[in-house]
Amino acid sequence: MKLSEWAKQQGLTYKGAWKMFHAGQLPLRAEQLPTGTIIVHPAEAKPQGVALYARVSSADQKADLDRQLARLSQYAAEQRLLVVESVREVGSGLNGHRRNMLKLLSNPQVSAIVVEHRERLMRFGFEYVEAALVAPWAQAHCHGT
After folding, report:
1. How confident is the model at residue 48 (pLDDT cuts 50, 70, 90)?
2. Could you tell me which of 104, 96, 87 has the C-alpha nearest to residue 141?
3. Which residues lie closer than 8 Å to 43 by C-beta, 6 or more apart?
4. CA 138 to CA 145: how far, in whole Å?
5. Element (H, E) at 94
6. Confidence class of residue 139 from pLDDT cuts 50, 70 and 90?
7. Cβ-count burial of 69 within 10 angstroms (0-12 exposed, 13-18 middle, 19+ buried)?
8. What angle do CA 66, 71, 72 make, to 5 degrees?
9. Domain 49-144 belongs to what topology?
10. What is the dihedral of CA 30, 105, 49, 65, to 10 degrees?
11. Where are the domains of the chain?
């Protein structure tokens, strides 16, 4: 599509988009034709899917991780969801520095997180995180089964 059309879709002025193109700052691949017209190429679709997330609070509950993931896998299969990552974690739901959870939230291939219960994801503040993840600008969504 022409740069002017792309700029309009993005809520930008043509001049602003033109400056971005010449500065090499457009988020998409673009080229200038011999006629001077700038063409913006559509983004290549990356496959997106869901992540399965299982968590227990202590090491003596580790056996439950496999049972949680089995139930989540069955649910995902029944719903025909594309699973791109399965995460197991031992740690408190109050801990905001769970390494595997933070890594999962930064994965651009994950469009949804499937958990058995909301408390498996976190004990408090779930509503805030859910609202942020389903915002139009977010790359991921959070759903509990």
Report:
1. confident
2. 104
3. 27, 28
4. 21
5. none
6. very low
7. middle
8. 95
9. Rossmann fold (3.40.50)
10. 160
11. 3-40, 49-144
Q: From CA 69, how far away is CA 85, in angstroms rounded?
A: 11
Average pLDDT over residues 78-88: 86
Q: At 123, is the pLDDT very low, low, confident or very high (cuts 50, 70, 90)?
A: low
| CB neighbour class for 18 (10 Å; exposed up to 12, middle 13-18, buried from 19) | middle
Coil vs helix vs strand at 39? strand
- Can you tell me the mean pLDDT for 3-27? 86
Q: If you ran DSSP here, which 8-state letter would residue 84 be given?
A: E
Residue 127 tokens, joined: 């509503």
More confident residue, 135 or 85: 85
Q: Any idea which residues carry the catalytic annotation?
A: 57
Residue 9 structure tokens: 């879709």
